[in-house]
Amino acid sequence: MMNAPVDLRSTGSTASKSALLDAQNNPVAIPPMPDYNGRILAYTATGSVIAAGLSQNLFPAWMIWTLAAALIWPHVAHQLTRRTFLRHSARIRQKMLLVDCAIGGGFIGTIGLVVIPSISVLLMLMFSCLIIGGVRQWVFGSLLTIAAAAVAVWIVGLAPSPHSPLLTSLVSILATGSYICVTAFYSHQQARALMMAKTQIQNQREQSIALSHKLSKYLSPQVWQSIFTGERDVRLETQRKKLAVFFSDIKGFTELSEEMEPEALTELLNHYFNEMSEVALKYGGTIDKFVGDSIMIFFGDPTSQGQKQDALSCVSMAIDMRKHMKIMRQKWRSQGIKTPLEIRMGISTGYTTVGNFGAENRMDYTIIGKEVNLASRLESLAEPGEILISYETFSLIKDRIMCRDKGEITVKGFGRPVPIYEVVDFRRDMGPNRSFLEHEHSGFAMYLDSDKITERERETILSALEDAADRLRREEE
């Protein structure tokens, strides 16, 4: 008379389907009770009520045909929903349950609304409606059951007495209780299986997240984010975009590598890359690669703030790196590294080809083009601590950053000499109001960035400077 209470394969929820698939692959999982078995159970329970009523002459003799129909209908319904065009119907389970409600309502009206058998059948119907389709299914099922019962009562009439014999009442109660208990047991087992499947999915999800974070160490955060959010496909494809390209290396690193042990040199280099990477990410740069002591970074892909802002962010990053390098050099000196390490940088802005290069089974997200060669050339021409930029970069940032004309250079791939400029500093930091001060001599180094100093730190710094000044005066006297 009704479907099995739970079958997540028909709920339409992607998460539930995935959970159920894992649950079915799990040998501990309990499969849901099929519609076929649930309907057989419900109609067998109803058949026992009919048999008890016939044996006590509660129902008319012709209702023996309803007993036969109750035993046959589950098989007919199974064939209709599995072997005919109905198998393609959407929400077939809910629709078949409404048919069961109509049949059940007709039976209740046919027996003249005898109380206990009617309530037993009604409970089984409403129990199934609530589990399978929720409140919506329960409302429609109730209305259809009431309507079918009313039509049957109008045709057949009410029973002489609403009371049923004891045996029929007991059979009705036991049949309904058995159906509810069995379906509830399967629902409970299926819920346990689903929870186990969800736990497995959660564990797999956590493992996938941990693995993705490990893999992200080999990709720029912007590239990793665009891949894992689905914004970018992992396939061989490129595009032309206007980017700001940055190159840097360490002047004096070759000499230092001859003086230091490989382990200490590796530690120093990793510390340098880590510090510079944090600066690059702060300004939104896409870190392309590390080669030896060189770093290649570009701005404008996969995310861009506009050509002007990308160029400004790139040059601002270079200025910050130069300041940060001075602080790091002082730390290295305190660790016994006396070789003066200086960073030199080159920046160009223009159209490049950016995307995935390589083979289908091994790709590299990078850029190529003459602007890349120009940035590399500028970096090689720069003096220690110097930032050289191309004319196009200069034209985009000249209103915010002070630059000095350095003449022209000849670069392969460019038909004419290329004007280049040296980055001095932010215009806001020029003159007496500048926030960054530096003094470096043998035995003395000071790097002051007043914009980054808190009130508490300011008092400590002033005290340290006063102590240093008093000591120098005493030694002079």
TrEMBL record:
Native source organism of the sequence: Marinobacter confluentis
Identify a single GO molecular function assigned to this protein: adenylate cyclase activity
| SMART domains membership | CYCc (SM00044)
Guanylate cyclase domain location: 244-379
What residues form the membrane-spanning segments?
58-76, 97-126, 138-159, 166-186
The identity of this protein, by name, is Adenylate cyclase
GO terms (BP aspect): cAMP biosynthetic process; intracellular signal transduction
Q: Per UniProt, which keywords does this protein have?
A: Membrane, Transmembrane, Transmembrane helix
The organism's place on the tree of life at top rank: Bacteria
Annotated Gene3D superfamilies: Nucleotide cyclase
